[in-house]
Amino acid sequence: MSIADLAIPTLETERLILRAHREADFAAMLAVWQDPDVRRHFHGGPMSREEAWGRFLRGFGMWAVKGYGMFALEEKATGAYVGMIGTFEVRREMTPRIEDMPEAGWTLASRFHGRGLATEAAKAALAWTDAKLGNPAMFCIVAPANFASVRVAEKCGFKSWYETIYEDEPTLVMKRPPGGAR
Questions:
Q1: Residue 37: which of 122, 149, 139 has the closest Cα?
Q2: Other CB atoms within 10 A of residue 88 CB
Q3: In a 3-state reduction of DSSP, which class is residue 108?
Q4: Pairing relation of β-strands 70-75 and 16-19?
Q5: Beta-bridge mates of residue 11
Q6: Sign of CA dihedral 177, 180, 181, 182
Q7: Rounded distance between C-alpha atoms, residue 143 and residue 59, angstroms
Q8: In CA terms, which of 2, 4, 34, 124 is 20 to 30 Å from 19?
Q9: Phi-psi category of residue 157: left, alpha or beta, with phi > 0 → left and psi -120 to 50 → alpha
Q10: pLDDT tens-digit profile of 125-154?
Q11: By the 8 A CB rule, do 76 and 15 touch?
């Protein structure tokens, strides 16, 4: 089986292409996961090369098993790797556990922060997921201090649901109702 066999769609927004990851994206993705400006709002420190490779490969498994997953973000104007965005299922060891709805998430390289790209990409990815899965309720987790990411979630119809501790860190869980606002 090749990546092409997974039938990962390509979506376009005004400034971005949302597409399947390619093995050639790994170095850029690793740089994102090791960037302290990106990782400051994530659980744990910078990701090792081995951890990032495992996450990279799990992304393809998500598409193969669930039929949805993370898209690579590519800037149309330059072809630069911007980050990743999409919907997935992690089965997190959180209290309470959430296993009955997909989770949305996004991570962009710090040089692309503050330009509205996360919101632009999230709206496109969520619209595709809604069409694919029939407008399900979704959730996302955000570090409470990550105001920019909270704002992206709010612009995509997510509302604060509850706070919990996940991997020893305060975590805001946000929920978007079925067919939530875009």
A1: 149
A2: 16
A3: strand
A4: antiparallel
A5: 18
A6: positive
A7: 22
A8: 34
A9: left
A10: 999 999 999 999 999 999 999 999 999 999
A11: yes
Euclidean distance between CA atoms 20 and 157, whole angstroms: 25
Instruction: For residues 39 and 34, give the distance between their C-alpha atoms in angstroms, rounded to a whole number.
Output: 7
**Which of 41, 43, 31 has its CA nearest to residue 148?**
41
What is the three-state SS of 38-103? HHCCCCCCCCCHHHHHHHHHHHHHHHHHHCCCEEEEEECCCCCEEEEEEEECCCCCCCCCCCCCCE
How many helices (H) and strands (E) the chain has is answered by 5, 8
Kind and range of the H or E run holding 154: helix 147-155
**What's the whole-model pTM score?**
0.92
Q: Domain boundaries in the chain?
A: 3-135
For the domain 3-135, what is the CATH code?
Answer: 3.40.630.30
Using one digit for the tens of pLDDT, what is the confidence trace for 67-101? 999 999 999 999 999 999 999 998 888 888 898 89
d(CA 70, CA 17): 13
